[in-house]
Amino acid sequence: MPCHNAEKYIVEAVESVLNQTYQNIELIVVNDGSTDQSGEVVKRYKGLGVIVIEQKNRGQCAAANLALEKSNGEYVKFFDADDILSPRFIEAQVERLAGRKDAVASAQWGRFYNDDIKTFRLSPEPVWRDMDSIQWLVEALMRAQPMQQCGLWLIPKKVLERVGGWNESLSLINDFEFFCRILVSVKKVYFCQEAKLFYRSGILGSLSAQKNRIARESECESLLLGTDHILKKRHDGEAKLACANMCQHLIYNLYPMHPDLRARLQKRVVECGGANIKPSGGRYFQVLRSWIGWKLARRLQRVFGK
Asked: Which domain covers residue 294, as residue numbers?
């Protein structure tokens, strides 16, 4: 569990792990240079099955890699310091994997807002079933909004030893590259109906909310690296279209900013034979798009925020 300035949320996250019905758990929290009281809060759990490691602020990926290096378990779950697991989450995933080292387990998820668990709603996806792992990627990417949040997955440590940890050069959507690399290296994804991730949304200043140039560069690089992993395994039209759609979706979202990043993504779209996904946006954007085209509609959206 990487932790950076999560004082407000980390108690709920830690206790959702400690309260799991599966008890053979080692929880390693890496305090990544927090400037709030996160470190002091989590130290209260030392001796209760929680290991706390301090490091200077080096980012989520570096913190996750340090925790992985210190871990002893056969299976690994990376978990954010502001989310919550349902009580039988890990037990259900361990049961589904049943000792396998060539598969990963996934789970249900949904968002809750304003720190109010009562707002939680599941977000069902077509990939909520047992699947070939690369086919999972292809189907998830086809809609260009795959949910690869780290807490969803239980991963055999043998897989991580083979393919490596998190790419520390990435920040925004670092999970895309990481889980593409993981999934192309295993055979199956086992879906756990009983496992439910409560994904806290709407946090100001969160990593996923970043929009600066460095974050956008990471987003672009992660997409290109992740689609590389897929295309090295599958070259058919379906896989290429899924990768093209993923890149095209980011092109739509970046426009008209960052022309250099858009050019890199467009090259991948062309290499894959083109995309068929339409730009996403609210009702006003979609009405304007139908009248004046998506590019001018996006420019107006940037100005007026509709």
From this structure: 282-306
Asked if residues 127 and 58 have their Cβ atoms less than 8 Å apart, the reply is no
At residue 305, the pLDDT reads: 73
Of the candidates 118, 142, 106, which has an alpha carbon nearest to the alpha carbon of residue 278?
A: 142
Query: What's at 214, amino acid-wise?
Result: I
Of the candidates 267, 269, 293, 266, which has an alpha carbon nearest to the alpha carbon of residue 281? 293
User: What's the number of domains the chain is made of?
Assistant: 3
Identify whether residues 8 and 108 lie together within a single domain.
yes
CA distances from 285 to 202, 255, 257, 297 (A): 22, 14, 17, 6
Cα 53 vs. chain centroid, distance in angstroms? 23
Question: Cβ atoms within 10 A of the Cβ of 112, count?
Answer: 18
Query: Which tens digit of pLDDT belongs to each residue from 68-82?
Result: 999 999 999 999 999
The reply to whether 152 and 191 lie within a common domain is yes
Q: Is 99 helix (H, G, I), strand (E, B) or coil?
A: coil
Question: Which residues share a beta bridge with 113?
Answer: 116, 201
Give pLDDT, residue 209: 52
Give the global pTM: 0.94
> pLDDT exceeding 90 applies to what percent of the chain?
92
Do 11 and 144 fall within a single domain? Answer: yes
